[in-house]
Amino acid sequence: MRNRFSRQRGLLRQTIVEGLKVEIDHAPEEFHSAMNLLGEHLGVNRTMSSKCKEFTVRWNSGEEISEEPNCISVGYGGNGVFLDGSDIGEPLDEVYKPAVATIAACLVWSEILRRSGAYLPIEIPKISVSVNVRVNENALYTNATQLQFSLEGHETHQNIRDTNDGTGHRRVLLRLSDDDPLVEQLLDTVDVRAMNETFEESFPRLEFNLPETSPRVQGHLTVVGVGGLGTWCLHTLVEGLNRLEASDVSFLIFDKDMEVEEHNLNRQVIYSKEDIGMTKISATQRWLAKRLTNSNVELAYELIDAMAEDEFKESEEGIDLDDLLMDTSPENIEDEDVLTIQQSIERLQNTDLILGCLDAMRPRVLADYIAAKNNIPYVNGGVANFSCEFSEFTTSTLIDKYGSQIAKNTTVSSCQEDGDVPIASMVLTNAFVGSLQALSAIQRLSGHQVSTFESVYWNAHSNQLHSVPSVQTLDRLPYIEKTREALWPNQSVSNLTEPGEENLL
Fold first, then answer.
1. Looking at the structure, do residues 318 and 428 belong to the same domain, yes or no?
2. Which of 293, 434, 437, 492 is most buried, by CB atoms within 10 Å?
């Protein structure tokens, strides 16, 4: 199933989501916008007239909260984001408001989903429909592999397995195509319930003290990955920058996905149906050009090992990695629009912040290493099923947190069709972490060395938060050697341009 909401059906009961109705009382404009945008990406159908579950969201700047289960209080300001009626403090700087409003809206929508029973009790990362045909090869003395099974009028993929029950029978599985109307009809009826399923109302709070921004926000950002996290980071950042009188921000955008697909549209906020089929970097460049007219946007396909060098050297064997990468250039993007490896190295050496929005561990470690070499923060984001995490590394690395073995892990955990490990994904976790990444970028571009948070973890299913404040220190150079050794054991960085699969990730 490849429609817009197919990837979130492993987390949500979509029929309940479609029937939600939410009224918002006396909230700021940017919160209304965030709630509406997230609701659209969740698939809330505002035209439904029956079987609706109604909720009211009330703005609360520090009063008692309602005890009605279908009424949710929310407020945010200089003290943080609160659903428990805490004092929100002074108003936020304008540039912060879109990102903070999106964080608040994520917490509110999650509570609505919890109270309406829309969350599944467990993630279902993949689901398919098959017809199981048991055959006895001994009956006709015919090998099942020599037979072609089919279902008239339906596209199927045949797979043969042993029964392993001593009968000598075999099972022929005829898996129906995900796009088959019968499959879509069946999957719409699938539901999973936990025995004695209960929940308690949650009133999450995220405390912070965001510093004042400078009159002119300026600098260079590197965004590695423009999927769910990267697009929400850019969306909330640009919405904030456009509230300022002046800003001067340049971008280097990495993403190797060759096309925007329909199922991306439920959580990758900057794309529309017009972008389907385009490379993600070219669609992102077009989006930024429309919304941040004075920005400079440069593009690259993939962050590779050779970009960790001080300069790029062609291998003695004559293989030019630049040419190798350019050979993959699709028709809708010109080669001259994509930076060479040497140009990418130069931009990375002069960037102010690297934002990692990736789906595999090794490229995250590589991005972290490049940031550490330049003594700048690395901001990492990750989502998996109902959970998500934001981390800013300023006095440590990914290797310190997870161990050196992660530098060898190239497994792709993705909601894309080609992910090694399939995961379900919804807009809320992506928007939550992407907005925190935008807040980090705003603070860095305002002249602050580091941001407010070292890490924030959120479980949307329980709507519980855990945050760790930043130590407010930037010192990355002591950690370079440990990360380099994890990435390239017993190998000098100067050898990284030798041809081989290790350079192409």
1. yes
2. 434
Query: What's at 425, amino acid-wise?
Result: S
DSSP secondary structure of 59-77: E-SSSPPP--TTEEEEEEE
> One-letter amino acid identity for 246?
A
pLDDT-derived band of residue 219, with 50, 70 and 90 as boundaries? very high
Shared domain for 112 and 150, answered yes or no, is no
| Whether residue 106 is found in the same domain as residue 168 | no
82-116 residues labelled b (16+ CB within 10 A) or e (exposed): bbebbebbeebbebbbbbbbbbbbbbbbbbbbbbb
Structure pTM? Answer: 0.90
Q: Could you tell me if 351 and 390 lie in one domain? A: yes
- Tokens 């992506």 label which residue? 430
| Helix and strand counts by DSSP (H, E) for the chain | 13, 18
Average confidence (pLDDT) over 244-263: 92
Q: What is the DSSP string of 215-275?
A: SSEEEEEEEE--SHHHHHHHHHHHHHHTTSS-EEEEEEEE-----B-GGGGGT-TT--GGG
135 and 112 in one domain? no
Domain that includes residue 169, residue range: 130-177
83, 72 contact by CB (below 8 A)? yes
How far the first Cα of the chain sits from its last, in Å, is 29
CA angle 388, 451, 74 (to 5 degrees): 60
Residues 170, 93 share a domain: no
The answer to whether 281 touches 259, Cβ cutoff 8 Å, is: no
- Over range 54-66, report the average pLDDT: 94
Q: Do residue 110 and residue 220 come from a single domain? A: no
Element containing residue 135 per DSSP (H, E): strand 130-135
Distance CA 492, CA 485 (A): 9
Q: Which residues contact 150 (CB under 8 A, 6 or more apart)?
A: 156, 174
Q: What tens digit of pLDDT does each residue of 293-349 get?
A: 888 999 999 999 999 999 988 754 444 555 545 555 555 555 558 999 999 999 999
Asked whether residue 134 falls in the same domain as residue 104, the answer is no
